[in-house]
Amino acid sequence: MAKGNNTPRHEMPTRDAEERRHIFGEVALGYTLEMAVEEAGRCLNCKKPSCVPGCPVNVRIPEFIAALAQQDLWQAVAMLKDKNSLPAICGRVCPQETQCEVVCILGKKGQPVAIGRLERFVADWERMQGMRAPELPAKTGKKVVVIGSGPAGLTAAGDLAKAGHEVTILESLHTPGGVLMYGIPEFRLPKDVVNAEIDYVRKLGVKIECNAVVGKLYTLEELLAENDAVFLGTGAGLPMMLNIPGENFNGVLSANELLTRTNLMKGYLFPAWDTPVKVGKRVAVVGAGNVAMDSARCSLRLGAEEVHIVYRRSRDEVPARAEEVHHAEEEGIIFDFLTNPVEVLGDDKGWVTGIRCIRMQLGEPDASGRRRPIPIEGSEFEMPMDTVVMALGTRPNPLVFTDAAALERSRTGTAVTNQENGRTRMERVWAGGDIVTGAATVISAMGAGRIAANDINTYFQDSSGPWWIEPTAAPAAVSD
Amino acid sequence: MYRIVTKKVLGPVTKMYVIEAPEVARKAQAGQFIILRVSDKGERIPLTIADYDRVAGTITIVVQEIGKSTRELGFMEAGDELASFTGPLGRPTEIENFGTVVLVGGGLGIAPIYPICRSLRAAGNHVIAIIGARTKDLLFWEDEMRTVCDELIVGTDDGSYGRKALVTVPLKELLDAGRKIDRIWAIGPAIMMKFCALTSQPYGVMTLVSLNSIMVDGTGMCGACRVSVGGRTRFACVDGPEFDAHQVDWNLLLSRQRFYLDLEKTALEAYERSLAPAAANN
Prior knowledge:
heterodimer; A: alpha/beta; Fumarate Reductase Iron-sulfur Protein, Chain B, domain 2; FAD/NAD(P)-binding domain; 16 helices; 31% helix; B: alpha/beta; Elongation Factor Tu (Ef-tu), domain 3; Rossmann fold; 2 domains; 7-stranded mixed beta sheet; 4-stranded antiparallel beta sheet; 29% strand; globular
């Protein structure tokens, strides 16, 4: 079998763009066993792999790939799941191109090993066989409550259960999974995949209590009184708006509303499912992150005829994954770069009729390091629209902080932690994921969940030291 | 989980349910709401809490059957379980001894003013309540209301029971009578709350309304419930549901409530068609 960069990387089989723009079925279809084994054969199995430190949870990449190349699939599963309890999800939604794959030695002269696609293959293979419940250690008698069942919470809960603690997850919605269920659409992350991963966490002994809104049903103080540790992984659920005139017209939605109605409530199956979701013929999605791409592609599948991504910067600054932009373009989404809405237009009954935009040009780099968009005077123009979706980013939901004055927060509402151990300023309370970083990625949230779980174990063994230690290094930059 | 303990028919389209939800009951306060789902495919229905019993561990809600989901709920009986029940959500009513207070409950709005009256009375207020509905069939809890207020005025728009008057008429009479009224609450359909606000505004009496905008999660996540109060966008679910009536942009609320009307109709019609054969067999 050929090894190294002289064989090209296997393309991911995908559903045809014309077919998929009307349906919610998964776009990427996954490798066959033959493709996966061949692709695994490209890995050089480096002595000092750079891919492993590139991964926020340090998945044993060369080891799982080597097992796969030898067609020892259960060994591949064991190696993969040693560090990652949600591999079927990560294989689909991680930005491998900026993490493990970007540092792959093969990528220097050709194409890197398709680590993400192999991860997905191994995880999917395991799910088809029926997941094996791991052996659990003796109970420690310690109780931990995890708030939020998104990627940070599920990872922390899984790790803590594996360490023998009694873990309960509190979830505010009626279904666990957080952003994996309400945010990321079916065509990118099938909910069966998410449910299987959640079942695995349940098999580890984790109890999940839904419909539990912390800050309303329980306060942090109450939870601390009944548990030895609390982990906050409530994400960043509060939508930001542009604060421009007309933003409350009928037909202006936050991306959260569109995605929650579509994904969590299965609005695309209305009226078989009860929750309606409505987009018009012409849709503008404001913003260009992954959430904007998801919103645009959902709108298309919900029946929109023309969908625009309206973004104030240029293509080079687009924060969404390249793959998502590529898929969106294939499906016919129109990108309006250097365009900024200044007003939502409506009729006398309060319904959206369009947006007034201004053209932008790029100036000097701003605080984010990206070139600052500057309005071009007199360049205003109108675009007729029926629906406008605001996908401008999200902030942590303040509800969880109710009656928790000791929990320090930043100016933007994120929880202040030492990101080296996940500790907040409030004793016995850890936090990780988007609640700390603001909206980021699934894998960085999982990494933070793991760091906190490790530190909770350390703390249970010895809590004699000071609770708060200033972090030694600046926290790693998080991409948006 | 979330078992219906008691179901009581209050009128042709109005039903009361007592739901077993001990954790929610432990925290619930007047003015807050819950969100329930009837079935696994069900939508999230926000309903203001009509009563709570911390000892029994129950929450009481009153429902008007107007759409598919509420019709479906209407077929559930004591002993049945709801798919989900979340709360208490929103901010509770601010309760203190204001002096003399007037509470206006229109239609389904009678249910949420009941616990508010009780709390205000316990805080030492002289409580006057006005309850009204379009017609007699939509009125309920007259006797219950008498137990939590000092004066009760009952009316219907069509005169089929009590005074023939919109609720704004006795409200204006009270304001004109020269009695010092310290605070007013008006809860009911948006249009009724709007006219209560317009009625009390010239008198400068602080008036609170409980805004029933469209919601999904009820925790500040989706922003569907956006309302404009005093020129600022607020989320009814977490910033409310109660707001200063004189600051609310009523036309915006009324317009936003209509956003899904066509689809709600589609859902109801499809549901009624699905029921038709069953009805024919009866």
